[in-house]
Design goal:
mainly alpha, 76% helix, elongated
């Protein structure tokens, strides 16, 4: 039995955006996956250029904050 590959949708993008564990453990991979999904959605015609720009900007903002947030968390709880 094989799993059918699903095309990404906005729900997929939002779930990944909200995945704090993935974002904390691998901010670069998280960022690139968000970009890839946004690009796929645009390519499929599921979103328009304006929506694509919004998704990319949200991913950029989150990625930009990743180092500071991760350092602050490490300082608050070095054992985490």
């Amino acid at each position: 039995m094989s799993e059918e590959l699903k095309s990404p949708d906005l729900t997929t993008w939002q779930q990944m955006f909200d995945d704090q564990t993935y974002w904390q453990q691998s901010p670069d991979a998280h960022y690139f996956d968000l970009q890839r999904i946004a690009d796929d959605l645009l390519g499929q015609g599921a979103i328009d250029l304006e929506q694509w720009q919004i998704l990319r900007a949200k991913a950029d903002d989150l990625h930009k904050d990743a180092p500071a947030v991760n350092v602050a968390r490490e300082l608050d709880d070095p054992e985490a």
